[in-house]
Each structure stands twice: as C-alpha cells, then as structure tokens.
Amino acid sequence: MKKLKRYQYERYAILCRQAYPADFDHTQYGFDPAGRRDIIDRWGRTIIRVLWGEQNEAIVVFKGSQNLWDWLLNFACFPQKLPGRQKPYRVHWGYHFLLEQKSKIATNRYAEAFPSLSASQEIDYLQAADAQHFQDESLYQQIRSTLLPLIKNGKRISFTGHSSGGAMAVLTVERLGNEFPDAIKRVVTFGQPAAGFWSFRQAYSYHHCTYRICCDLDIVTFLPAIPLMHWHVGKMLWLHNEKIYDNISTPVRLYKSLVSWVLRPITYHYMHKYIRNKDYFDKH
C-alpha cells in the first residue's frame, strides 16, 4: 500500500468539509466549470457531489448524517445481503439504504450553479448524464450513470466521505468495482463507522488503496458498537497527540485515548505545547 501524501490528505479533507455548505464553488479547487454533478437525497438535499477537471481523476464526495433520521440509520445495523464477485457478502443495512434511496427531486444543479454558460460549453458526457434521467434511479444508480461516461473517457475515480458518507463511499467502491475494477484510484474517509460484516471485509477488493482517517476518541469510528460483528476495511490512520498511528488495534486505541484524557492537564505544561502556539503572536 502506498502512503497517503499530505497534499492528498488535505485535498480530500477540504472537499469533505466543503461538502456541507450549500454555497460551493468547485472551480476554486481545480475542477472545470462544467465538471460537477450534485446528487440529491430523498429530502431534496445535496448528499453526493461528483467533481472532475482536466486531470485524469474524478472525485466523488459523500456527505455524512444531516438530520436525526440519518443519525438513527447508524443503528440500523442488521445485515443486508449483496451479490459479490465470488460469493455474497453482508453490509450494514442503514448505509445500504442510503444508497438505495431515490431523489426527492430531479434537478440539474450544474445549470443552477452556472446559468450563464451556454449549452455549447457543456461536455458530451455531461449531457449524457443529464439529471432528468435520474428521476427513477437510486443514488447508487445516479452515481454510476454519472461516472460511466467519465470512466469511458479514461478517468480514474477517487472516493471520499465523512462519517456515514465514508461508509457509503466504501460500499459504492466495492459495488462499482464489480463492473469497472480498474477504474478505482483511491478511497479516503474521515470519521467513518464500519460499513459491513466480516464477509464484506473478505470480499472488499480495495484494501490497498483505502485509507480510513480517525481522530483521537471519535466515537463514531467505533460504531456500530457490537464487538466482532462489524468490520472496517482498508488501512486506518489514527491522528492522536500530534502523531499518526497505522492500523492500531481498537483496545490499544481506547487505552491510549483514556491515558491521554487522564493526563491531558499535565501535558499542557510541556514546552512543545507553547511552541506549537507560537503563531498566535503574529496576530497581535
């Protein structure tokens, strides 16, 4: 597995953060004006953004939970059986449901965001993925319909998401990879709960390019809280006490978090804490 570079981490982290505000100008992040497709959930909110530009990469960004109903789906952790490449596997029912929901409305968010651009400026594969065709499709089908012409044009696809959006990302990757195994470039998730059972972990084909970022004692990353029932995929990178730990076990992670919490008042006395805050003085 290749290391996740800092600029890659920052790019995906910023895109995940910017997925939540309604006002989002994707051109500021190197994507083409016509290189965007927003996918709407059953509540009429943007939940997924597909972004692309001149580079040989398109990025699918998944939002996390946005209301109480979405949060409750985290606890709908009974198994959903899906067909795999060699044998069936089981995933978290709630996150599968999120991908199978249909949009409340079918809308061309590209046209809303850039009304001044003429039809001649649209790319052929954007027209082929016209949002009007999405009305009767699930979110997963809309993702596939949007990505299909991009893949045919030689782009490789990266996926990123925060919270339940990360779980949706890995489920989408394995499912899409059944059809287009060479199209998957990278998966980077933040604060992601487990998306599947042991059979899904065994079936998952992209451990080598999947990075699961966890920060300190983020409780969502331990969900669903049923030991040895749900399993994560890919490589975990745990950000804790200004260090990065690779694939640290859950008991060790809990122990280190507890020790850090108990000792935190003492650690604030160390000089490196004062050095870390030196930039504050530039503002005074």
TrEMBL record:
Signal peptide extent: none
SUPFAM superfamilies with a match to the protein in the record: alpha/beta-Hydrolases (SSF53474)
Please name the InterPro entries in this protein's record.
AB_hydrolase_fold, Fungal_lipase-type, Sec_MonoDiacylglyc_Lipase
Family annotation (Pfam families): Lipase_3
Q: Which GO terms describe its biological process?
A: lipid metabolic process
Q: Which residue stretches, if any, does this entry annotate as coiled coil?
A: none
Q: Which domain of life is it from?
A: Bacteria
- Fungal lipase-type domain mapped to chain residues: 59-226
List, alphabetically, the CDD domains matched. Lipase_3
**Which PANTHER family does the record associate with it?**
ALPHA/BETA-HYDROLASES SUPERFAMILY PROTEIN, FUNGAL LIPASE-LIKE DOMAIN-CONTAINING PROTEIN
Entry protein name: Lipase
